[in-house]
Fold Sigma-54 dependent transcriptional regulator.
Amino acid sequence: MARVLIIDDDPKICSFLVLFAREWGHAAAQAGSLQDGLVKAQREPWDLILLDLDLPDGNGLQILPELVDGPSRPEVIIITGTGDINGAKLAFQHGAWDFVTKPFTMEEIALPVSRALAYRKEKSARQAPLTLKRDAIVGSSQEMRNCLDDLARASATEASVLIMGETGTGKELFARAIHENSNRAAAPFIAVDCGAVPESLAEGLFFGYEKGAFTGASARREGIIAQAAGGTLFLDEIGDLSPNIQKALLRALQERHIRPLGAAQEVAVDFRVVAATNRDLATMVAQQRFREDLLFRIRAFEIKLPPLRARKEDIEEIAVKKIHQICRHYAIGMKGISADFIHSLQANRWPGNVRELINVLEYALAAAGEDPSLHPKHLPPEYRTATLDLKPPPSPQGVPTDGANSGGQAPFPTLAAYRADADARYLQMLIARVRGDRDMAMALSGMSQSTLYSLMKKHNLSLSGRAPEADEKW
Ligand SMILES: Nc1ncnc2c1ncn2[C@@H]1O[C@H](COP(=O)(O)OP(=O)(O)OP(=O)(O)O)[C@@H](O)[C@H]1O
């Protein structure tokens, strides 16, 4: 038996569909508005939702993304009397299973419904590998379990995978886990941050070059695609690739052959691509900033990682595990964790997601010193105010805003300004923690010496607390 929800404001259609679903042995319920539909869709698990577009409180497409990403990830069939090709395109972009125009006969609706339910049955029958290696991935919320199911399915195939999610949600962690759980686990996992590759060096980096291929090519160099032979190539921030490299990469993906710069022959390479982005690639395609054919190539399988604020249950589990890990790592006695401390963590929005949470936990442990347990007072002040019902704070001092403040709202910082401010505060915490110990600074922050040094320099800071110019050479 499947569970079917019908969201339509026409009582006749609803009764017809409820009857139809029950005759086929399914459980069915109905909702007459977007709001009612969304509440019901999120309160109970559904296998299939039949969604009208023209509802009294808005267009069904408005809630489609929330429906398909809902706790039970139902299939959604659009049923509409005002369908047009653009609406259908949008619906498919947002993950609808099918699009049926009204009026329809019993047969016309029976086919897509039975196909959707058969697909769903097949999907749930496919077992995730029993031995999924996920040690580093913490979280048991329904959202995280859905992502782990996707991870298991992606690992069992050879298909390319696109992982989407905000910064710090664990895209790289998932990419590594796909590789480690795949048949390619024994071969290399090669990661490249596409945003950090200068356009002029990109071809050489991806495809390699022969000695003398260009001025400065004093020796032959293997490209990262060849390095990933037999294994997985992880393209982080793929939305940052220039059009030229998108084109060259598409060719490599289609042909599975590459030609290093200056080489006479093409060589075959067997590699799997996992890509990640925090951008909306479909919008970039519409704006002609990303190739549609490349998007199709890399998106055979999609994993959407939800932000931490959408899975607050995971915060406690991540915090407990990370605190224990950090305590073990630095050989400091285990700390107790107060319920208030967890409550304060859960009240924050975490725009930097798990990465930001981990940084704050490091700070709290440093601030706690010899105290036996962690309390809200050990959190950075700005993270403590989240539990208070106060007016929005003014913008951080010196942080430029986007100029889009209106209606008396507090100025809103630009993302770049917010990140720079967060970087500076993080560095200050780090300086206070390591008291001049460079190795400890690198170990705690996970930054290389050169990255740490240049970030310190950018913010006019030094590990010793003196002016950077007076600091030791690295
Ligand atoms: N579910 C999780 N459980 C435990 N640790 C996690 C989880 N998700 C992320 N992390 C940790 O958070 C940090 C950031 O993760 P990761 O680099 O994979 O994120 P990302 O989405 O690739 O970030 P970005 O887009 O900024 O590159 C890492 O230290 C990672 O180990």
Notes: The pocket of adenosine-5'-triphosphate is lined by residues 136-139, 165, 167-173, 236, 276, 278, 318, 354-355, 358 (CB under 6 Å). The longest strand covers residues 75-80. The CA atoms of residues 77 and 98 lie 5 Å apart. The first helix runs from residue 11 to 23.
